[in-house]
Design goal:
This protein has a single domain, classed as 3-Layer(aba) Sandwich (Rossmann fold). Helix content is 45%, strand content 20%. The protein has helices at 11-21, 25-33, 36-48, 65-74, 87-98, 137-147, 165-185, 189-192, 194-200, 205-214; strands spanning 55-59, 79-84, 105-109, 122-128, 148-159, 219-225, 230-236. It is globular, with a radius of gyration of 17 Å. The protein starts with 10 loop residues before the first helix and ends in a 6-residue tail after the last strand. The relative contact order is 0.16. Belongs to the class I-like SAM-binding methyltransferase superfamily. MenG/UbiE family. It is an enzyme of class 2 (transferase). GO terms for molecular function: 2-phytyl-1,4-naphthoquinone methyltransferase activity.
Length: 242
C-alpha cells in the first residue's frame, strides 16, 4: 500500500492549504483543465444516479461545484450536505449557494474522518479530489460506508495513476510544465506543487477497489476517464443499484 500524503501531518495543515487557495480555486480549475473538470464532475453525478428527494453528503465539498449540481438533481424535496475542513472554501460555497435559494443545501465544517453525522445518514455520498488528501484512504472509505443507507451508493472522483508509462509521463509533464508554472504566476506555487507528490503516492484503481471491499462495499469498480488521467470509483452496498 503506497504511503499516503499528509498521513503524518496534522489535518489542520491540509485545511490551511485549501484556505489559501479558496478564492482562486475555481478559476485555476477552469484554466488548468480547460474547463473539462466540469465535464468530469457531471460524469460523477451521472454515475451516482441521485434521485429527487434523496439526501446526499458531499465530502470535501470545497467551493460547492458538485454540491450545487447534486442539489439540482434531488430537488424539490431532497437535500445536499456539504462537508469540508476549510473555512475559506465553505465561505465561498455558502456565497454560491445563497445565489440559488431554491436549492436545499447545508454545510458543515469538519474533518471527514471525524464527522458529526449519524450512521445511515445518506442515500448517496460524493467525494471529488478529497480521498487522496485524507490521512487514510481506508478510513475515508469506511466513513463513506458508515454514512450510507443499506441501498446507498457513492462515487469518488480523483486523479488516476495511469498504468501505461506514456500516460504517466504525460501526466507528470502536465503537472510540472503547466500546473506549477500557472500556480506560480498566481503566487500559489507552494500550494500546487504537492499535486504531483500526492498523485504519485495515491492508491491505484485496483488498490482502491480492494480497500473498498475491505470496508464492506459489495460494489467497488474503478472507471478511468479523461484518457486515464482521472478516475471514478463507484461504490455500492448489497442490494444497491448496479
Amino acid at each position: 500500500m503506497p504511503h499516503q500524503p499528509f498521513a503524518q501531518t496534522d489535518p489542520a495543515t491540509v485545511f490551511r492549504l485549501f484556505d489559501q487557495t479558496a478564492r482562486t480555486y475555481d478559476l485555476l480549475n477552469d484554466l488548468l483543465s480547460l474547463g473539462l473538470h466540469r465535464l468530469w464532475k457531471r460524469q460523477a453525478v451521472a454515475l451516482l444516479q441521485p434521485r429527487p428527494g434523496a439526501r446526499i453528503v458531499d465530502l470535501c465539498c470545497g467551493t460547492a461545484d458538485l454540491a450545487l449540481l447534486l442539489a439540482e438533481r434531488v430537488r424539490p424535496h431532497g437535500c445536499v450536505i456539504g462537508v469540508d475542513g476549510s473555512a475559506a472554501s465553505l465561505e465561498q460555497a455558502r456565497q454560491r449557494a445563497a445565489e440559488r435559494p431554491w436549492l436545499h443545501l447545508e454545510f458543515i465544517r469538519a474533518d471527514v474522518l471525524a464527522l458529526p453525522l449519524p450512521p445511515g445518514a445518506a442515500d448517496g455520498v460524493m467525494m471529488a479530489y478529497g480521498l487522496r488528501n485524507l490521512a487514510s484512504i481506508a478510513a475515508g472509505l469506511r466513513v463513506i460506508r458508515y454514512l450510507l443507507k443499506p441501498h446507498g451508493r457513492a462515487v469518488v472522483l480523483d486523479f488516476n495513476r495511469p498504468s501505461r508509462p506514456l500516460w504517466a509521463q504525460a501526466q507528470r509533464s502536465y503537472l510540472q510544465q503547466v500546473v506549477v508554472p500557472v500556480a506560480r504566476m498566481m503566487d500559489l506555487e507552494a500550494e500546487y506543487t504537492y499535486l504531483e507528490r500526492s498523485i504519485a503516492t495515491f492508491a491505484t484503481g485496483a488498490q482502491q477497489e480492494a480497500l473498498a471491499r475491505q470496508a464492506g462495499f459489495a460494489v467497488a469498480r474503478h472507471h478511468p476517464i479523461a484518457g486515464s488521467l482521472m478516475g471514478l470509483l463507484e461504490l455500492g452496498l448489497a442490494g444497491g443499484r448496479s
